[in-house]
Amino acid sequence: GKVDQAAAQLYKDTPGAVVGVIKGGQVVFVKGYGAADLTNGLPFTRETPTNIGSSSKQFTGFALALLASRNKLSLDDDVRKHIPELKDFGKKITVRHLLTHTTGYREFINTLIIEGRQVLEGDYIAPDEPIKVINRQPALQNDPGAEFNYNNTAFSLATTVVERVTGRPFAEWMREEVFLPLGMTKTWVRANPGQIIPGRSIGYIAGDFGFREVRDLHAAAGAGGIYTTPGDVAKWMSNLKTGKLGGPEVIKELTTSFVLNDGKPSNYGYGVFIDTNRGLKRWQHGGNDIAHSSTFVYYPDLDSGYVVFSNYQGVPGVIAGFVAEAFFGQHMKAPESAPAAAGAGVDVPVATLRRYAGKYEMSTLGGMLVTVELQGRELRLQVAGQPALPLKATSMTSFEVVGAPAKITFNAGADGTVEGITFHQGGEHPGKRLVEKSSVDLNSFTGRFFSEELETFYDLSVEDGKLVIRHRRFGPVTLTHTNGDNFSGTLPVTQVAFQRDSEGKVTGFEAGNGRARGIVFKKVSR
């Protein structure tokens, strides 16, 4: 009932979702809500294959662990043994580094966004572009194995390794060697954004005139791009328990945390996050394509789990929480703070809401700028390049983001001043409050800047007292001064650090947006 209530706004004329609960390898609850295809009026059903985005990564991790168990390669092989055309950075990057997000490579989607690619509008990305992005990269972003930096480039390369080692297309090898042996007949790797997947869900985003279709991301097969159903996931979860394909050793490899060079666990195996949730051991992964989103959760001690797959990012993020509570709550410790009942809401005084409004710089999300505005009695959250979304209070300090699978907690000091926020989505992301300082001379940062690496220009100017950055394909984006010569903004560039010469003149900047960073732009004219 709780799950139905949370999904109550998904009708046959809205995009939708499918919820599946699996116990002991069997589907014990499955239900579709809303539409899989608005053009043809097809409902979301238990049999609708849906793009699970990054939840696909565990299948790629399994594929390489399986090939290693068959002695077709070693996970300690240098990646360049299999992809010799990759640039040599003078440090050994292994296949295992690919699967654990620890390579030091630039994240290609984020890099292409800085280059001016309109990824959210379905701009084409060719399959060989991840390699091209790396080959233009001047230096690694971190030493291999030193740092976890979530990275689609690495998983795209991992699929290339599978193809080089097996001599077969990744999509074909996965279907014949992994999916069909497990009985997963409704699971495909969609290798190309134009490939037909029978009966699939189409991705939607909100447009000016209702919903509009968007294409899947390209060139990221292996990082994403798998279409599946809850029934097929049940067969996959059964194999996580039994290891009948690959054996228990391969499953153990897949679900054991990588240890970083400094001896700390990354809490990530090969394409799967490893954590505990209210006292229960959990293997999980989320996924977001441009429109599709997925939640995949497996509790190994219960041999049970659940999935929520949708074709619209605006599907209520609370659904997954209600599923977990309804079906597995009795096995868990009580939550730290009880979630408010759906629709009940909490009345937070306007004076408190006013204190929460402001700009916050997200330290782990690449310095991304998050703006919280008060409109009337409602807080709204503005994130780079996204429509503003309302915040609904679940306590005096916690809010869920209406229309996105995310939550926000405001962190107040003893004197009541709000010092920062925590953004809960695929982990806990801290952000610190920005205090606007106008003491810097914005005119010193203006001019035209060029990146040799990306073959890309940016123009900076001062308008209405604000520093604005433009690219020929988008803009303007306002840059907010954080400290020194550092600014933060919204996509495409969330961090800009200016450089000066010995006379103090600005000569260029380094740009980044989290997963891609330190991209050099040199000043070419005023």
How would you sum up this structure, described in words?
It is a single chain. The protein has 526 residues and is an alpha+beta fold. It is built from 12 helices and 29 strands. The strands form 6 sheets. Strands 14-15-16-17-18-19-20-21 form an 8-stranded antiparallel barrel. 45% of the residues are buried.
The residue fraction in helices comes out at 10-25%
Count every helix, treating DSSP H or I runs of 4 or more residues as helices: 12
Number of strands: 29
User: Rg, please?
Assistant: 23 Å
- Rounded mean pLDDT score: 91
Q: Give the termini distance in whole angstroms.
A: 62 Å
* Structure class: alpha+beta
Strand order of the largest sheet: 14-15-16-17-18-19-20-21
Low-confidence segments:
338-344
Could you describe the largest sheet, including whether it forms a barrel?
8 strands, antiparallel, barrel
Identify the overall geometry: globular
Q: Strand portion, in percent?
A: 25-35%
How would you summarize this macromolecular structure in one to three sentences?
With 526 residues, this protein is of the alpha+beta class. It is built from twelve helices and 29 strands.
Show the helix and strand layout.
Layout: H1 2-6, E1 17-23, E2 26-33, E3 35-37, E4 42-43, E5 50-51, H2 57-69, H3 79-82, H4 95-99, H5 108-115, H6 129-136, H7 152-166, H8 170-179, E6 188-189, E7 203-207, E8 210-214, E9 226-228, H9 230-242, H10 248-254, E10 273-277, E11 280-288, E12 293-299, E13 304-310, H11 318-328, H12 350-356, E14 358-362, E15 369-375, E16 378-383, E17 389-393, E18 398-401, E19 407-412, E20 418-424, E21 428-433, E22 447-451, E23 456-463, E24 466-471, E25 474-483, E26 486-488, E27 495-500, E28 506-512, E29 519-525
Antiparallel strand pairs: 1-2, 1-13, 3-4, 5-9, 6-9, 7-8, 10-11, 11-12, 12-13, 14-15, 14-21, 15-16, 16-17, 17-18, 18-19, 19-20, 20-21, 22-23, 22-29, 23-24, 24-25, 25-26, 26-27, 27-28, 28-29
Helix pairs in contact: 2-7, 2-10, 5-6
